[in-house]
Specification:
four-stranded antiparallel sheet, Rossmann fold, 38 strands, alpha+beta
């Protein structure tokens, strides 16, 4: 047995480098099935974050489809999703640079089929009867008004101008045609709701000219969230609803909504992007679905006649984006030891085939920390959830009296969730001897509507308390060093990070990635999709202006007393750069240690490999200086003002 090297936590040498994470991995966004061909998009940091459509033919050959510089990414709702659709080999996709829809057939160059205007498109389906796409359109042609969202029909050949099918609501998603093409279902919701707060499911008849008539709302409302409507092969409408606290499956039949599987489990997700899918029909009376309980996802088969749910055992604990394929199901799968992959499950043999992996990197399991689901006490006699990652490196051990530093992660959203999926950024820290607590604070999804609603009116309080109490729980039980607690987060998680450092005194350092420091500025400056999000999280603005100010870290920098590093994309439209710059100025003036790392050309979330690498290394360098350990990595220093 090889003798372990002894070194302080934080100083362990690791094969999981920032260079490896930033250049070798690629993010798999979504998959689409066309006959026996499988298509998906990859976000490639090595190509400046370009989204590339890839095709896998039945013989297993993979080919890049979209030529450079085309970038298959939509900006509807800014977060995008469902940027392309395929039919008989013809691909229709949204191009990032001009947001026009393009048609791309084999052997030809992509051709635009929509006007060169301030219009964006997403979530398209193909209406073969009427030779058009039906999709969401977001109209930005008038800079003096809020963007206008509609459902439109777009001619496949580009000769027909956009035909508005549905209008009047603030938001739309999920247009779905029934099997004979006579009816359309869709989702709609209005300010101030987000789709996971309340949304409506509508159905209408389609006339030969494509217009809709006899439209009616069949489910949902301001206090019921609808997710993923789908038609069964025999023409019945199915959907997910949280009307009983949990996102469960239902169907609409003869004017009645029927539950299919009443469980304390979530069959849905918060719809941050278009095209999310947690179930698919593989036969007229058989659904393959996924659900989550206690932070882990499970695959199952549901008989829609007997309503019997049978779990399917597979080696994946994070499962998403289901698509039916001949004889099986396609999904995005990962586990604590396997990176995200597109996987095909043969339903007859129950065997899984990896179609595409997000990373070709092979990491020895001796360097990987396995997440432990923990439940810990928090405010109000309640409990909260998290995944704890202990330091792990097969080559190293720390001195017996050296407890590890702890890095608490506050995820974005905030109505999102962390999972057990292999995340090399987490392993970057644990393999160097730094413990990680990935928190699903109150407000996170996956634990029922009531858990999500813990954050209503209390953003900046409940999430912060849960992150603080999770760190205290580990420190008090001897897992980590209570004097070396740090917190990091991006976007909404960045706000939680800044709030924890400002309004609590538990953490000794922090890192904010494009985090919100001024809630007033956020609600005034952000994009349409989230422009009223804070009505539920904080309160209606400007009526509750005092509450916005009371919870904005920028107004209370006098309470800050620990070092902070901030990372920001200079083209971010979700959280504009001035949010970070105001915080830096305040910290600089107060004389606190502060580092600011801005990136030209980056938006909300970093996509360029050099910036992903630099941010990880800069954050490690920052913690090393603050907590007094020497990293094994050779890192270009980052300027830290006011650090003696």
């Amino acid at each position: 047995m090889t003798q372990l090297k002894e070194a302080p936590h934080g100083s362990w040498e690791s094969p999981i480098s920032a260079e490896l994470i930033s250049t070798e991995g690629r993010r798999i966004i979504e998959a689409v099935v066309d006959g026996e061909d499988i298509y998906w998009t990859e976000m490639r940091p090595a190509e400046n974050g370009r989204y590339v459509i890839v095709r896998r033919s039945p013989d297993g050959q993979t080919t890049d489809v979209t030529p450079s510089p085309f970038n298959a990414r939509t900006r509807v709702h800014e977060y995008g999703g469902a940027a392309f659709v395929v039919s008989n080999g013809a691909i229709y996709f949204s191009n990032f640079d001009d947001q026009r829809l393009y048609r791309h057939s084999h052997g030809t160059n992509p051709q635009p089929i929509t006007a060169d205007a301030e219009l964006r498109y997403a979530d398209a389906i193909i209406d073969d009867k009427r030779k058009c796409l039906i999709c969401v359109r977001e109209d930005h042609t008038n800079p003096n008004r809020e963007a206008v969202n509609t459902l439109v029909g777009v001619g496949l050949d580009g000769r027909d101008s956009d035909q508005i099918l549905v209008s009047g609501n603030d938001f739309y998603s999920s247009p779905r045609l029934n099997p004979d093409g006579t009816h359309l279902a869709w989702m709609a919701w209005n300010h101030p709701n987000m789709p996971w707060d309340g949304a409506e499911l509508w159905v209408g008849e389609i006339s030969p000219d494509g217009s809709l008539s006899h439209t009616e709302c069949v489910a949902g409302g301001v206090e019921e969230s609808i997710f993923q409507p789908e038609w069964s092969p025999d023409g019945m409408l199915y959907f997910v609803s949280d009307r009983t606290n949990w996102w469960n499956l239902y169907r609409y039949r003869e004017g009645t909504v029927e539950p299919l599987c009443d469980m304390e489990a979530e069959f849905g997700r918060p719809q941050w992007i278009f095209g999310m899918s947690t179930y698919q029909f593989v036969a007229p009376n058989q659904i393959i679905c996924v659900y989550t309980q206690d932070g882990a996802w499970h695959l199952a088969s549901l008989d829609t006649v007997t309503r019997k749910l049978d779990r399917i055992e597979i080696p994946y604990t994070s499962i998403a984006n289901l698509q039916a394929v001949p004889g099986g199901i396609l999904f995005n799968g990962s586990s604590s030891t396997e990176s995200a992959s597109i996987v095909r499950l043969d339903l007859s043999t129950r065997q899984c085939e990896v179609v595409c992996q997000s990373s070709d990197i092979e990491i020895d399991a001796g360097y990987l920390s396995t997440p432990q689901a923990i439940e810990f006490p928090t405010e109000g006699g309640l409990s909260a959830h998290a995944f704890f990652y202990a330091p792990q490196n097969r080559d190293y051990a720390a001195p017996t009296d050296d407890l590890p530093p702890l890095l608490v992660i506050s995820h974005g959203g905030p109505t999102s969730a962390t999972s057990t999926a292999l995340d090399l950024e987490i392993q970057y820290w644990t393999s160097r001897g730094i413990a990680v607590l990935d928190v699903n604070y109150g407000g996170s999804s996956g634990y029922g509507r009531a858990y999500r609603q813990r954050l209503n009116d209390k953003w900046g309080i409940v999430d912060v308390d849960d992150c603080v109490n999770g760190a205290r729980f580990l420190a008090e039980n001897g897992y980590v060093d209570g004097d070396r607690l740090a917190i990091r987060g991006g976007s909404a998680g960045g706000y939680t990070t800044l709030s924890a450092l400002t309004f609590r005194d538990v953490f000794k350092a922090g890192a904010s990635y494009y985090g919100i420091s001024d809630l007033e500025a956020m609600t005034r400056d952000t994009h349409k999709f989230e422009s009223r999000y804070l009505d539920s999280l904080i309160g209606p603005y400007p009526q509750e202006r005092n509450r916005y100010r009371e919870r904005s870290p920028i107004h209370f920098t006098d309470q800050l007393s620990c070092p902070l590093i901030l990372f920001q994309g200079l083209e971010d439209k979700v959280v504009p750069p001035n949010q970070a710059e105001m915080m830096v100025d305040a910290l600089r003036e107060k004389g606190l240690p502060v580092a600011y790392v801005p990136f030209e050309g980056e938006q909300h979330g970093f996509r360029r490999s050099e910036n992903i690498r630099r941010s990880l290394e800069a954050e490690l360098y920052f913690y090393a200086r603050v907590f007094g350990f020497v990293p094994a990595d050779v890192i270009d220093p980052v300027p830290i003002e006011n650090l003696s």
